[in-house]
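Hello,

Our lab assistant flagged a job as stuck in the queue for most of the afternoon. It eventually completed. Since we weren't sure the result was trustworthy after the delay, we are filing this so someone can double-check. Below is the sequence as submitted and the structure that was eventually returned. Let us know if re-running is recommended.
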Amino acid sequence: MTWLAWRQLRTQAAVVAGALVVVVIALVVTRTHVVDVYSPSGDHELTGIYVWLRLLGTVLIGLPAAIGAFWGAPMIASELEGHTQRLAWTQSITRDRWLAVRLALTAAVSVAVVAIFAAVFTWWCAPLDATDVNRIAPANFAQRGVVAIGYTLFALALGVLLGAVIRRTLPAMAATLLAFLVARLAIQKLVRPHLVAATTLRTDPFSPGPRGAWTLSTRTVDAAGHQVSAQALENHLVKACHLTRATPDVDQALANCAHRLGFDNLTRAIPSSSFWQLQAAELVVFVGLAAIAAAATFWWIRHRAT
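-- returned structure --
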C-alpha cells in the first residue's frame, strides 16, 4: 500500500523537490550579499534579483494552500468522482488503512518540503530581521519560523476532508483554497493576539511606537489617565503651546508639547522577543485543527462515503 501511494505521488513530489533545490541553492548563494548589505557598514538596500528573492516569502505563504488544494482535495474526491473507491476499499486493505497510509505519506513529503523552505528562508532573512524588518508583524510572521508546518498540515487535512464531503475534485480544490484562507485570516485576527501575553508600553505621542513589536492597539491619555482622541489632543496642544501650521518643524513641536504636558500613548504590543513563543503557540493551534479535520475525514469515509 505504501509503495502504491508513493507511485501516485512521486511525479508531483519530484517536481516540487526539484523546485525546492533551485530555491535553496539561490538563497544559499545570495545570502553573503544580504549579510554584507545589512552589516553595520552596509547600505540596507536590496536591489535586482535580491528584491525578488525576498518575495519568496510570499511563495512560502501560498505553498500550504497549494498543497491542500492540489494534493489534499483530490486524494478522496478523485476516487469518489471516478467511482474507483469501490475497488480500493473492498480489497484486503481497509479504507482506514488506505487513508492513513496516503495521508501520512503526503503529509511527510509536504512537511519536509515546507520545513526546508521555511528554515532556509528564515536563515536568509536573519540579517534583515536584525535591523529594520519587523518579523513578528502579520506581514512577515508567516514567512519565518515553524508556523508554516502547521499551515501545511491543516491545509492538507482540510483539503482531504472537503474532497470527501464534496466528492468532486475541482469544486473541492476551490473550496479548500477559500476555506483555508478564511481560517488563516480568522486565526490571525481573532486568535493570534491572545496566544501570548501582550505588553503595555508608554510612548510619546507622535512617536513611531515600539520598534520591532507587533502593535495591537494604541490609545492616548492625559496626565490624569483620561483617554483623549487624536483630534482633541492636537487642538489642546495647539492652544496650550501656541502652535500653528506655520511653526517651524510643527510635528516635533507638537511632540515636545505633548511630552511636556504629560500626554502618553499606551501601546499594547507583543514584543519581538516573543516571536518563537508565538510561532510555537500558533503551530500547536493549526496542528490541532489538522488533527480534527483528519479525524472528521476518517469518520466520514466510515459512515458516509460509499
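-- support follow-up --
The delay was a queue issue, not a problem with the job. The result is valid. The two ends are 20 Å apart (CA to CA). The chain is about 65% helix and 5% strand.
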